């Protein structure tokens, strides 16, 4: 997992780097919660989740997008 660091007030200058060690456990916990929430709105992702298969970042982004379009999920 990576962290996106916004280096200006407009959020237009973004730097990607490794998540600092002190935040890694919390980031993993919240990523798991996000995957679970998205999987609840998508049968295919739910099957992968329940079978213990890895859900890719691309699948997660697509799931968030589709759930948002379907008004089933509200990313904040």
UniProtKB/TrEMBL annotation:
<dbReference type="GO" id="GO:0003746">
    <property type="term" value="F:translation elongation factor activity"/>
</dbReference>
<protein>
    <submittedName>
        <fullName>Elongation factor G</fullName>
    </submittedName>
</protein>
<dbReference type="GO" id="GO:0032790">
    <property type="term" value="P:ribosome disassembly"/>
</dbReference>
<keyword id="KW-0342">GTP-binding</keyword>
<keyword id="KW-0547">Nucleotide-binding</keyword>
<keyword id="KW-0648">Protein biosynthesis</keyword>
<dbReference type="GO" id="GO:0005525">
    <property type="term" value="F:GTP binding"/>
</dbReference>
<dbReference type="InterPro" id="IPR027417">
    <property type="entry name" value="P-loop_NTPase"/>
</dbReference>
<keyword id="KW-0251">Elongation factor</keyword>
